[in-house]
Amino acid sequence: MKLIKYPSKEQWTELLKRPALNTESLFDTVRSIINKVKTEGDKAVLEYEAVFDKVTLSALAVTSEEIQVAESLVSDELKAAISLAKQNIETFHSSQRFVGKKVETMNGVTCWQKSVGIEKVGLYIPGGTAPLFSTVLMLAVPAKIAGCKEIVLCTPPDKNGDIHPAILFAAQLAGVSKIFKAGGVQAIAAMAYGTESVPKVYKIFGPGNQYVTAAKQLVSLRDVAIDMPAGPSEVEVLADASANPVFVAADLLSQAEHGIDSQAILITTSEKLQTEVMAEVERQLAELPRREIAAKSLENSKLILVKDLDEALELTNAYAPEHLIIETENYMEVAERVINAGSVFLGSLTPESAGDYASGTNHTLPTNGYAKAYSGVSLDSFIRKITFQEILPEGIKAIGPAIEEMAANEQLDAHKNAVTVRLKSLA
């Protein structure tokens, strides 16, 4: 990790750069895969599974028998942990239900909103170096609460053509409708356009590598909605002299092990803590099974010393981290001043991994500085709000002249006339 002391503001932009990959450079390759799936359906997806996932499949759909077998392969301890996490995610996201109120903006003019679940959603769950069954819960549970009628899940199989049993167990528990063995660009294309097996969906959710990210960007241009722009995962720890260096190092490494392009940053007001965390990261890294991945990620990571908490907060809000852990003496006061972050973890006993798994908040969050403009996945991500209005005679009389005046000045005479004919009918 890079040790940086008292950087000037002129250095901040360079200092806060992410190791984000340029997905635009992949667009030509990705577009050709999308187009082949679009025209050839299942046949193309099966061919790409053979090429990219090195597996020959006879069908894409996961059978009920495979789900039953998977359940028997998941330990009771893991089932209990997944069930506890599901319950907390359900509790937190259920509290986000929208209740529309009828509002009378003027006498005789009533407006309101109704919340409606997106009918068909697609969830992408990466395979890769770790089976992200936790992401199944983070996406499928709120989709079910929102009332989405069809929840489609795609995830890459292993070389034997199997899906990790914990992914299948979590999907069944959370209420996924259909599960398919498909990864990468071909899975995104299948959900975006539909194939003989995979239904077309209206919105696609879920993380993935740079090819998946590029595919989501391309299909979202005109054909399907996506959850948010995504990039490599990241964490920032904001800490003062009261922080425990063992905890801070563990938090930084928990993010570093995600992938070689992940980023972990410490911003601290304590030079002593900066030095101690550096040593502790090295000690804990040596004990990690995924130390090669974490070590590569740490090359993108930094330990930054600043003069005071005001500067620490200004730097934090400029960075807009996906995950922000605040380990300071007065962490609640500090948290009040955070304006750009995906998800915030407060105090020394609140690790980022709690949000990743079981506290109840969602771990699908904006990365690469998008927390300045985007929220993480929530119940709102799976719903649409439809507006309604009803105008009674006294209402059209009250607002009609204003509508006529505005329409006339915009030279939209048909708009004006739609009101005029009604006012004349009431005269």
TrEMBL record:
Its cofactor is Zn(2+). It comes from the Bacteria. GO terms for molecular function: histidinol dehydrogenase activity. Binds 1 zinc ion per subunit. The active site is at E322 (proton acceptor), H323 (proton acceptor). It is an enzyme of class 1 (oxidoreductase). Pathway: Amino-acid biosynthesis; L-histidine biosynthesis; L-histidine from 5-phospho-alpha-D-ribose 1-diphosphate: step 9/9. It catalyses: L-histidinol + 2 NAD(+) + H2O = L-histidine + 2 NADH + 3 H(+). Pfam families: Histidinol_dh (PF00815). Its EC number is 1.1.1.23. NAD(+) binds at Y124, Q186, N209. Substrate binds at S233, Q255, H258, H323, D356, E410, H415. InterPro entries: Ald_DH/histidinol_DH, Histidinol_DH_CS, Histidinol_DH_monofunct, Hstdl_DH. CDD domains: Histidinol_dh (cd06572). Keywords: Amino-acid biosynthesis, Histidine biosynthesis, Metal-binding, NAD, Oxidoreductase, Zinc. Zn(2+) binds at Q255, H258, D356, H415. HAMAP family: HisD. Catalyzes the sequential NAD-dependent oxidations of L-histidinol to L-histidinaldehyde and then to L-histidine. Belongs to the histidinol dehydrogenase family. This is Histidinol dehydrogenase.
